[in-house]
Amino acid sequence: MTGLRAPAGLPKVQLPPRSAVHGGHTEVLVVGGGPAGFGAAMGAAAAGAEVVLVERYGFLGGNATAALVMPLMSFHNEIKQAVAGEDNRLLPTDHGEGEPVVAGVLWMLLDRLVRAGGAIQPSRDTGYTVPFDPELFKLVTYDMLEGCGVRLLLHSFASDFMTLPDGGSRCVFETKSGPVVLDADVVVDCTGDGDLAAAAGAPYEIGRPEDGLTQPMTLMFRVGNFHREDFLEYVREHPDQWRGVHGLWDLIRIARDAGELDLPREDILFFATPHPDEVSVNSTRFGGLGISVWDLTRAELVTHHQMAQIARFLRNRVPGFGDSYVIQSGVQVGVRETRRVLGDYQLTGEDVLTARNFDDVIARGAYPVDIHNPNGRGTILRRLPQGASYDIPLRSLLPRDVDGLLVAGRCISGDHVAHSSYRIMPISMATGQAAGVCAALASRTGKAPREISAEQVQRVLRAQGASLPGP
Questions:
Q1: Span(s) in the chain for CATH 3.50.50.60
Q2: pTM (2 decimals)?
Q3: Which H or E run contains 435?
Q4: What pLDDT does 366 receive?
Q5: If you compute the radius of gyration of the chain from its CA atoms, what whole number of angstroms results?
Q6: How far is Cα 395 from Cα 393, in angstroms, rounded to an integer?
Q7: What is the pLDDT of residues 377-394, one digit of tens each?
Q8: What are the tens digits of pLDDT across the range 147-193?
Q9: Domain 21-212+336-463 falls in which CATH fold?
Q10: In this model, does residue 89 exceed pLDDT 70?
Q11: What is the largest CA-CA distance in the chain?
């Protein structure tokens, strides 16, 4: 595969000074329009703050729309029975009843999406996931933010952060109109990569402790002209399809032996969408660092070729896909893990798996530890105790050594194991809503976010419908 590689010890060159357009001041500046940023903007606006949201793409949704990460994964503490699959991956076979542990802005969004025909309510039948339409996701988030008075700036890539003499913050954005700066009382970094926190000098970690490797990147894509009934009939005929002699694993093995499939992932994973003749496919994999332009370039090249292999395999081998075609791939490869900003508390894998509670809880999660092998095949899946959930403390949203800035989404303070659970989009939206509320309270009172008590944030979050333990 062609593509530039990063030479060792890249030299630095000095660029000339430049001026920038001053775009104004706002009380709360949210950077990143994905699930975390959407939650932060909605939470801050509902708490009474003036809010500007800046997004790098020309649309909102982040990984939900740019990377086609479909569906929203389960945010319920359901009981799942499971069997061991290939490579000891646990595969769900039945879903018990479950209760949602994320609410607030997420449920507002889901209600609007479902009424617009853009999503299917989570239930036992969906495995408590939420299949959604990415185009309606964009439109509904636009409308909801406009209804809350949030102002948008799109096509603007955040490149720098600085603290102003009066204690406020300034962010620099690269745009087609040249550099633009925006000032704010408080900034919420929802970039996913912790770009602004890193620029502000906050410490961070990358990857697993033994070797620094991160979870692999994945290009997701939508497949159309899928004949659902033909596929379901095949599944009914081979109920043990994951491990059966004539099941899907067997088809994958036959294709591998014939040289038709050469993939680093161990399975082909389908997700339903709101459209019966369409499925979403999550099966490509590239091990690299999602904040390296060199690795991102190679990831796009490699995963697009993997996608072509998978599409041919489905057409040639799998019942129901004979007339199928790729409708769309992600605008960019999906990135699971990059920087984890070190905050006043670092959430651990033990905290997640033991369902630990915190006095300063501002969000909850119940998604399993879900670690995709950075080196190729294999996925570790470890579940919480039945019916349990874990707390995310406000301290995990406060970067060390930095004032006037909060983080939300997958870049909050946690270790490699905990991150594999809280990185999913519903939990990111919950941490975003909490960060937005804290930012609004800080701006309105003239305090630093670190000076806002957890009790204040919890009180406002409960009033906004968030799912938190009772006072």
A1: 21-212+336-463
A2: 0.93
A3: helix 425-445
A4: 97
A5: 22
A6: 5
A7: 888 999 999 999 999 999
A8: 999 999 999 999 999 999 988 999 999 999 999 999 999 999 999 99
A9: FAD/NAD(P)-binding domain (3.50.50)
A10: no
A11: 70
SS3 343: strand
Summarize pLDDT for 320-372 with one digit per residue, the tens: 999 999 999 999 999 999 999 999 999 999 999 999 999 999 999 999 999 99
Q: In the numeric block, which tokens belong to residue 340?
A: 């984890």
Helical packing angle, 454-463 and 425-445, nearest 10°: 120
Task: Name residue 130's beta-bridge partners.
Answer: 72
CB atoms within 10 A of CB 54: 27
- Token pair belonging to 59: 């649309």
Residue 286 has pLDDT above 90, yes or no: yes
- Token pair belonging to 92: 């769900």
The sign of the torsion formed by the CA atoms of 89, 286, 218, 175 equals: positive
Tokens of 269: 């994973």
Whose structure tokens read 């499939």? 261
Residue 396 sits at φ, ψ, to 5 deg, of -75, -10
DSSP secondary structure letter of residue 26:
E
Query: What is the reported pLDDT for 81?
Result: 41
| Angle of the 35-46 helix axis to the 134-147 helix axis, nearest 10 | 20
C-beta separation of 40 from 397 below 8 A: no
- Predicted confidence at residue 5, as pLDDT, reads 63
Cβ–Cβ < 8 Å for 158, 126: no
Return all residues near 273 (Cβ < 8 A) that are at least 6 apart. Answer: 70, 71, 131, 132, 133, 222, 279, 280
Among 71, 77, 69, which residue's Cα sits nearest to residue 383?
77
Nearest to 401 by CA among 163, 195, 199, 200: 200
Calpha distance 288→216 (Å, rounded): 6
Distance CA 175, CA 193 (A): 19
Q: What confidence score (pLDDT) does residue 244 get? A: 40
Q: List 180's β-bridge partners, or say none.
A: 21, 173
The sign of the dihedral angle between the CA atoms of 28, 431, 73, 337 is positive
Q: Say which residue the tokens 């159309």 belong to.
A: 224
- CB contact set of 453 (below 8 Å; sequence gap of 6+): none
Distances 275 to 63, 137, 271 between C-alpha atoms, Å: 20, 14, 11
